Amino acid sequence: MTGADPAGALLLAHGGAVEADVILGADGVRSDVRAGLFGPVETRFLGQVAWRGTVAAADLPPGLVAPNATVWVGPGRHLVTYYLRGGALVNFVAVEERRAWAEESWSAPGDVAELRAAFAGWRPEAAGVLAAARECLLWGLFDRPSPPAWRKGRVALLGDACHPMLPFMAQGAVQAFEDGAALARLLPGAADIPAALAAYEAARRPRASRVQAAAHANAALFHAGNPASQALRYGPIALGSRLAPGVAMGRLDWLYGHVEPA
Q1: Rounded mean pLDDT of the chain?
Q2: Which string of DSSP letters, residue by residue, matches 37-60?
Q3: The whole model's pTM is what?
Q4: 261 within a domain of the structure (yes/no)
Q5: 52 shares its domain with 110
Q6: Separation of alpha carbons 195 and 148, rounded Å
Q7: Are 38 and 149 part of one and the same domain?
Q8: Structural domain containing residue 178
Q9: pLDDT digits (tens, 9 = 90+) for 93-142
Q10: Which are the catalytic amino acids?
């Protein structure tokens, strides 16, 4: 693919084109459809890298990993752990601030020894998961601006192609699902496709932008500096979660309680 025609066509390298009533570009942060509509996008390295991997739960001491998703935070780094496959695996994502650039890839191998060294001295519950890791992936975190519009004519974008998400709200795929639900509501039987796509953007862009902003805020929140700033940032969160967990979680009702209109 070499471009996108708002009239409803994808332009191909051999000179041909694929035409359709509507074209939806759900091709991720490196979207060719977005580039075809609005040109290339400049990326910005965030100064953070992430390791990701899984550990067999059977390889860990019983009770080491809490049943709920857990975020361990510290100066310049944080670690997230949660179960997968009905508790058979523990997934971990470890993020560290660094100036050295890392490849933006979801399949580049990481160095387990380097990962463990970055989190040396952390609590046993966190360090124990990394000690059991046999392999991991490593990628750099990059930020991208959203395109000026999500659609042009009969071509529209969804998911990371139009609202690239940092991983700090765990909402990248979720927001793409919500985009799909909105399109499924607005497109069937639409007499005016461009108008339906405009309604889709109007319905979805404010919410997706709010999630993007929350993810950016967490990028800083998770990496407190000195002990005093850690206490100021995390003390109220930890206390509120223990004394009134319902109230603490209620702050996220806008995110997790959202219902797409029928």
Answers
A1: 90
A2: HH-----EEEEEEEEEEEEEGGGS
A3: 0.86
A4: no
A5: yes
A6: 17
A7: yes
A8: 3-42+145-219
A9: 999 998 877 677 778 899 999 999 999 999 998 999 999 999 999 999 99
A10: 82
CB atoms within 10 A of CB 43: 15
User: Do the beta carbons of residue 36 and residue 2 sit within 8 Å?
Assistant: yes
How much is the average pLDDT of 196-213?
A: 98
Reported as a single tens digit per residue, the pLDDT across 35-44 is 999 999 999 9
Q: Would you say residue 234 has pLDDT above 80?
A: no
Residue with tokens 């990371």: 160
For residues 115 and 59, state if they share a domain: yes
Residue 137 identity: L
State the alpha helices, DSSP H only, in 151-250: 172-186, 193-221, 227-243, 245-250
DSSP 8-state class, residue 183: H
- Number of domains, the chain: 3
What is the spatial distance between Cα 88 and Cα 111, in angstroms, rounded to a whole number?
A: 24
Cβ burial of 188 (10 Å; 0-12, 13-18, 19+) is exposed
Question: At a CB cut-off of 8 Å and minimum separation 6, what does 66 contact?
Answer: 81, 125
Same domain for 158 and 183, yes or no, is: yes
Return d(Cα 225, Cα 75) in angstroms, integer.
Answer: 5
The first and second tokens of residue 201, run together, are 């953007």
Give whichever of 59-68, 94-103, 253-262 has the largest mean pLDDT. 59-68
- Of 82, 116, 143, the last residue of a domain is 143
Do 36 and 95 fall within a single domain?
Answer: no
In a domain, 8, yes or no: yes
Residue with tokens 């902003």: 213
Query: 88 and 131, same structural domain?
Result: yes
What's at 218, amino acid-wise?
A: N
Of the ranges 12-26, 144-158, 246-260, which one carries the lowest mean pLDDT score? 246-260
